[in-house]
Amino acid sequence: MTDETSNAGLDRRSFLALGAAATGAAALGTAPAVAQADGRKKKPSPKDPFTLGIASGDPTDTSVILWTRLAPVPLSLDGGMGKKGDKDVKYEIARDEKFSSIVQQGSAPAPAAHGHSVHLDVQNLEPNTEYFYRFKLGRHVTETGRTRTTPAPGQSVDSFVFGQTSCANWQSGTYQLYDDLAAQAPDYWLALGDYIYEYANKGYLRPDQTKPSRKIPWKKEPQTLQEYRRQYGLYRSDPSLQRLHLTAPYSVIWDDHEVDNNFTGNKGGGDGQKDRVDFAKRRAAGFQAFWENHAIRLPDGPPQAGASSMRIYRRVDWGSLASFLLLDGRQYRTDQPGDDTPQDFGRWVEGMFDPAGTMLGQEQEAWLEAEFARDPARWTYIAQQTVVSSLNGSVGALVPSISPVLANGVFNYDAWDGYWPARTRLTTAIRNAQLRNTVVLTGDFHTNLAFHLLDDWPDPRDATSPENMNEAVVNWQGTKIGTEVCAGAISSPTFFGDPLLGALAPLVRERTPWVEYAEYDNNGYVLHTVTPDQDRAEYRVCLAGVSPKQAAGAPRTDSTVVINDGVPGVSDIIPIIPG
Ligand SMILES: [Fe+2]
Prior knowledge:
Layout: H1 3-18, H2 20-28, E1 54-57, E2 64-69, E3 87-94, E4 102-110, E5 117-122, E6 130-137, E7 140-141, E8 145-148, E9 160-165, H3 176-183, E10 188-191, H4 225-236, H5 239-247, E11 250-252, H6 279-292, E12 314-318, E13 322-326, E14 345-346, H7 362-373, E15 379-383, E16 411-412, H8 420-433, E17 438-442, E18 448-454, H9 466-474, E19 480-486, H10 499-502, H11 505-510, E20 515-519, E21 523-530, E22 534-542, E23 556-564, E24 572-574
Parallel strand pairs: 9-10, 10-11, 13-15, 15-17, 17-19
Antiparallel strand pairs: 1-2, 2-5, 3-4, 3-6, 6-7, 6-8, 9-21, 12-13, 14-16, 18-19, 18-20, 21-22, 22-23, 23-24
Helix pairs in contact: 3-5, 4-6, 7-8
Bound molecules: fe (ii) ion.
Fe (ii) ion binds near residues 257 and 444.
């Protein structure tokens, strides 16, 4: 670690221990708060406009986005802002948590047209430096957030720590894994989609749940801008999530549930709910609310109201040590193959091999290739939504309880398996770029997994029977071009928790040679400690449907997957999982 980094680490921990709320209150008077860094809940004072907390995101070496949204009544359609017009909030940025050394202050707009959200793009900061910030409106002061800039271009750092999260369904668990990540005091973290789910009351529960872990007090899924704002109001009111945002800057990409389950392009996912608005308008509302509720720097600037598209794919650099290429695998994709089946999964279908099928769209594919060619860092992270590696699609045939249902294998049409030629274009681009280390970071699948990333996988069309396909998979010798790290879900039901699919789980690991690590039973996230020599990806797991006071609900490390510099694929697993 450099001195600067280790100092920042000490500061972060003492910051967490002291409790940011208390220090903020001492300096500026009243500091009503929902979440405190020490874990206690504070009752919000009446009309506190900062019930959704604060956040910082998309850091560069000289800037960071500081965010909040005014919503004194977060679960109402207008956030409690009624017909209030544009507002301004005061802000302060300091080098210390007591704000004795303020480096910038002023006022930032919270326009009514943006749901009274603030996106303050702070400029002229020092590289690789920790800062503290807060907002103020009238007598209300937010808690104190910690943020930081990235190292300068080309600057080397000895180490940094980032979190990888996804899939935080409200009703199937609580957010102790967000708390756990906050306690690790990361430098940065990624939210890889399904930060919210669109479901209404009882919309998505675990198979063993009879009632939601936490209720959603409305019966209809959001379809209008105000309804999406309210959905974010609910999610962002969570104290654990707010505490995590207080500790570190993040970058977010969306997946399907930011709008509608399994939507593609301009086509809804078919959720059985009555369409009250045209899907294109619904998508625009979901996109707008996403921007309003995140500390995100859009490459094309703030969206126009009702804009039909919004570019979120972008790049974040961490000096010469790492670069993050953040992708959008949802907005530009073609429809999933196999739409004629009621399931997301099924046997292979011709549509999986349609060369016109795309996950990223042509422009984004070209952008990605250009980014590969531009000044590669030691570690190149491709942060995206769905599983890239193929899963052994034939194992279903070997399980008697499954074979009648999924006769000839099981492919996930919504993941890259459903977009085979597009995936080949991706792996070809990775192989041709000859990057030093490529690591794909994945969400969506609600399973703790690590893969050797190969350049190709066995083609199910070549198999004459499921058994024959299974043989081809077991004996497959693909070329390793990188590593794929798939995080478990923060609180959504585990994928293999489904009784039918659960029978597949052991086979996926045992019979799929490119699956190096798999943990099926728990929720999770991944904590990466990155040095020039290694990425140590620690899988933090627990059952999010169980109280953290019980052992099963308490976050712990299941295994650490080690990726060595210059060696594509998983180098080591600590501890080694038997079998
Ligand atoms: Fe999800």
